[in-house]
Amino acid sequence: MQRIHSKLVLGINLCLAIIPAIVLGILILKYSLNVPIQDQWQISAIFEKVNTRTLSFSDLMAQHNESRKFFPRLIFIALAFLTKWNIRYEMLVIFLLACIVAVNIYLLNRLTINTSSIKSLTIALVSNIFIFSAVQYENWLWGIQIVVFIPIACITTCILIAYSRLNNTAKFLICMLLATISTFSYANGLLAWVIVLPVLALAKLKSWSDILKNIKLYILWIIGLIANIALYFYDYQKPLSHPNPVESIQYPDQIFQYFLAFIGTALGIGSSIQPLNNSIILGSITITLFICLCSYVLWQIKDHQIRSQTIGWIMLGSYTIISALVTSFGRVSFGIEQALSSRYTTFSTYLIISIIHLMIIVGEDWRKKEYLLINRSLFSKIICWFLGIITVLQIHNFTYSIEKMQSWRQNYLKYKGCLLLINFTHDNCQNLIDSYYFESHRQRARYLTEMGFLHPGLIQTNRIQDLVDTNNEREVKGIFEKLEFIGGNNLLATGWAIFTDTGLPVDAIVLSYDNSQGESIVSAVADMTISRPYLVKEFKSQKYFKSGWQKVLSTHKFPQGNLNVKAWALDTDTAKFYQIPGVHIVNKNGQNLSVLSGN
Fold first, then answer.
1. Which domains does the chain have, with CATH numbers?
2. Which of 68, 206, 403, 518 is the most buried (most CB within 10 A)?
3. 3-state secondary structure at position 239
4. 479, 495 Cβ separation under 8 angstroms
């Protein structure tokens, strides 16, 4: 009976440990979009070269910002041609890489902490809350961020290999391969060579006299590092848009604040009051804890057991610290607030995970050696309090993260609407599609549509009647409320709309005017997610709060005479239009403009 009870408890703990991954998977499915954004346009250039059979090794090795994304490019190409570039599959790879990291962390936990399976799974639950934290929403919802997860997946795998029973030669060769993959995936991937070597050297070392037995392998490792650096920096050019890190030295106080904020972002980013200050404070506490724990290990450096148990976690934490230092020097010119970027929480997370495990190992060692006169029960309570506090902070960030994910999705739905209409909406979409790259994006989007790599493909006509969903597969609730003359031949259009099947704001609102043949012609894409608190009261539902839209319409393309102005909801998955109730009549007489009526 007791055995059955133990298995039941173990099963419950296992289910709890994987809940963070399940929750994140659901969030990715809910908020992800199949649309290329930002740097993905540069990546998409290689698809054309593959299609025309002109792809070369130099294309795969080409510098992108500070990175050489050779291995991610191979993944992007494979996924693109297997899925017609369904970008959600890139997000699936990101999720799977995070799962690899989580498994590595759990196995390392089992190898370095002498405790029961139930307690190990409890520790894994807390670790997974951070590994699969929604505060990393930019990285979860942006397919190109595969590049961010490859290095940490390689590093944690190498650390695990260092603790394995493989012979030293096999360990070094496998880790050199993984370090090379890490290097040519992302800018900070080079850190793998620095992070992994001490673990390979010390994880199984019982006597300092044995360290020179692997001198040939250390030399081989250094040769591998030099070769990687030489290849990486061959013909390297500093990105013109990025500041010079050397110039940052004149701002030491700002670098220090940026560094602390970077470290503390994973815990403090969700604060509604002074998130920067809170992140700096939490970063200070975090780095102090790590230094104290490392100091204890250094004090006990002759004890091969504590040395072996901790070296993997110390180097995992060092990955965060070195990443924070490099980023601080390279990005502080953009402002200290930039350290709060959601993208950086994927790096700062691993220092917290390192501290969690180091506290347990060091605390247990301290207690056993009777440096600390407390019983096991009190020691366990201290650990539980610490885990509880950081978990509460992380869960507090969850609400903030969900709001950011919702905002991310809504913003990029409008962006996708602009993209689908890029042949017809140049003037009013430049705030979403950088005007500098607008024409190149348009040409690339046309080619991707021909390849079947852009879903549902660019809209080929500006006549909305040709694209109306005559089957009424979706229903829109809303109204085109007002059309007001605001001077300068401009009109302000306002309204609200939701899709009834989802209860969410429509993907995008497109405004049209009638041409001389009475056809509705695309005019502009409206600004979305305008607050409508009165609708919440009227319909007694929070889903209406961000259902508003508005747009300043330029009328220089409007024909003379009376014409109808209409609003349409665009489903960006099908490129189908649904008319919003309400039509407004405008009279254009020469340069004179007036709104006659609306219904």
1. 2-35+87-411 (no CATH), 461-598 (2.60.40)
2. 68
3. coil
4. yes
